[in-house]
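Predict the 3D structure for this chain.
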Amino acid sequence: MTRHYSAKADANQPEIVAAFRAAGASVGLIHRAGYGIPDLIVGYRGVDRQVEVKMPGKLGLTAKESDYHRDWLGAQVAIVSTVAEALELLAQMGN
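Done. Predicted structure below.
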């Protein structure tokens, strides 16, 4: 079986990662894992979330991403497409 690696991140991922980090979050880049695994793992105030980064206006999941969201029971997966959404996620995680 050949493992599929995503060659690139969405164009907005670097600014979203920078915003998470500037706000004090830890960010692991896992977008190259493939298999529908989300792009990031974000830790903030003792809470971890898996984060799928999508370009604005393209919020649909791929088939593999949909399978992952369905099959990874109990996972806290968020989808963000803007810095504002990323900061709102951190606000939710901090409560």
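The beta strands are 26-29, 40-44, 47-53, 77-80.
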